[in-house]
Design goal:
This protein is mostly helical. It has two domains: about 5-180, no CATH class; about 235-494, MetI-like (MetI-like fold, Orthogonal Bundle). It is about 75% helix and about 0% strand. It is built from 18 helices and two strands. A two-stranded antiparallel ribbon has the order 1-2. The radius of gyration is 32 Å and the shape is flat.
């Protein structure tokens, strides 16, 4: 029985248990819920939880443990000459066995008998079924694939029986505990509280896991490359080492990448912040309800456009336009029609990224400004201030903490952007202040260092984790500074 079907059965069991438990509680109380410690629904929920929760835990544990045991058993049955090979070669062999098992699972009995142990015939038959194999399987692989399918089927049947038995036992035991004085509400709310704690812990655990994994791999990198060479180096030239060459060759200077990240992000913020903030002020304070209902959704459409589309727009439209414009301006001024703005440049990437970020600033700022109490506006207007003075002296200072948070989110989005930079600013790691020349960012180099069939054993690949932890620290500092600003002004205006 498949896992989705088991989950569906558990859901049906939960509904039945809820109904039966509720009716049983009412029957005990003679139809008067006032005689019960808890409301009847809590008794039904208690029975449903006792039936489903232990069964779900058993199901999850089985789905984790069973593949580990089966895979270990199958690999342990490989011939001795295969076991003597490296872990990578054994992994490839097991991958072939897994592919064969999936393919043989869809073959009919007649096809399996016809194929027999002929590897070439088996590969041809599986190919006709849409299952591609990297090569002809060896006889032991065919046998192991059959064993794998058989063990998976047995495990699935046992798992289904155990899960359903646990669900029925839990339902029966909880049903017998229902009485007048049974504190069903306390038990149910305790389970709900535990579920809320688990849900709220997922984000924390995930963040800690990400940071620890990056710190571990970054530690391996700094064990081979000195930290001062990475953080203060001015040359980025990783030069992937060839076979037999020194793994530490290359230069891993962070400064060019960091400057490119901050420079492009700064240009993007110069475009996004004024346009987004002014549009938010207009829509929240000046626009009529009809115009606002039309303009705001149209503006927010920009947030739904994939970043790769912005990248193509920058590559095919904005970049060539700025290049041709610079050529025309240069020709009019000097007679030389050479272009001084490259098609791939900081200006191109920053401008297009700023357009992408406008809805982030506008929508968030609009919601924050709208949330400012109407009494503040009325008080200012009642004292004789004009509407523009009210916005400048009252509304915007009151909304400043929220606006700072919106700008922080926008800055984090700009720092983490990749596709627009790849297509609009290039991949050249350079140190220069000319916005008309190409540069690149940290995120682009993270992608380039991890692209391809690589092993995480050399500084050329481990450097991606050092770059990732650097970005994490930068965004953390931005969050701390924004929190300081928010607390300062919140105390002043609340």
């Amino acid at each position: 029985m498949s896992t989705p079907l088991i989950l569906l059965i558990l859901a049906i069991i939960a509904i039945v248990c809820y109904v039966v438990g509720t009716r049983h509680a009412l029957a005990i109380a003679g139809g008067l819920s006032s005689k019960l410690h808890s409301r009847p629904g809590y008794y039904g929920a208690f029975v449903a939880i006792c039936a489903v929760l232990p069964a779900a835990i058993v199901l999850a544990a089985w789905l984790i443990a069973s593949p580990l045991y089966i895979n270990s058993t199958i690999r342990g049955g490989f011939p001795e000459d295969v076991k003597a090979k490296s872990e990578a070669e054994q992994g490839l062999a097991f991958g072939m066995v897994s592919s064969l098992a999936r393919g043989m699972d869809i073959l009919t009995l007649d096809e399996i008998d016809r194929v027999g142990s002929n590897p070439a015939e088996l590969r041809s038959t599986l190919g006709s079924k849409g299952v591609a194999l990297a090569g002809d399987p060896e006889p032991y692989m065919v046998e192991s694939a059959g064993d794998l399918n058989a063990m998976n089927k047995i495990s699935n049947r046992i798992m289904t029986a155990v899960v359903l038995i646990v669900a029925l036992i839990g339902a029966g035991l909880s049903y017998t505990r229902i009485s007048h004085r049974f504190r069903a509400r306390n038990r149910v709310e305790r389970v709900i509280l535990g579920a809320l704690v688990v849900a709220s812990s997922i984000a924390i655990i995930t963040t800690v896991g990400i940071v620890m994994s990056m710190l571990t791999e970054a530690g391996h990198f700094f064990g081979r490359v000195p930290a001062w060479e990475f953080f203060f180096g001015t040359v980025w030239d990783p030069r992937f080492a060839a076979a037999g060459a020194s793994a530490s060759e290359g230069q891993f200077g962070l400064i060019p990448l960091l400057l490119g990240t901050l420079y492009i992000g700064f240009v993007a913020m110069l475009v996004a912040v004024p346009v987004g903030l002014f549009s938010a002020i207009y829509m929240s304070e000046y626009a009529s309800p009809k115009l606002r209902s039309i303009a705001k959704p149209l503006l927010e459409v920009l947030a739904g456009i994939p970043t790769i589309v912005y990248g193509f727009f920058a590559l095919t439209t904005v970049g060539p336009f700025l290049r041709d414009l610079s050529s025309s301006i240069n020709g009019i001024a000097t007679g030389d029609f050479a272009n001084f703005i490259q098609a791939q440049s900081v200006l191109t990437a920053g401008f297009v990224m700023g357009i992408m970020l406008i809805p982030y600033v506008s929508s968030l700022s609009d919601d924050i400004i709208t949330a400012v109490p109407r009494a503040l506006r009325d008080g200012s207007l009642g004292l004789g201030a004009t509407k523009s003075e009210t916005i400048k002296k009252v509304v915007m200072p009151a909304a400043l903490p929220g606006v700072v948070g919106a700008l922080l989110m926008t800055a984090s989005r700009a720092i983490g952007e990749t596709m627009i930079v790849v297509l609009a600013a290039g991949v050249a790691a350079r140190m220069q202040l000319n916005p008309f020349e190409p540069m690149t960012t940290v995120t682009v180099k993270i992608v380039s260092q991890l692209t391809g069939d690589l092993e995480f054993t050399s500084p050329q690949t481990l450097v991606a984790f050092a770059l990732g932890i650097t970005l994490f620290v930068i965004t953390l500092c931005l969050n701390i500074y924004a929190l300081f600003i928010v607390r300062k002004y919140r105390e002043q205006y609340e």
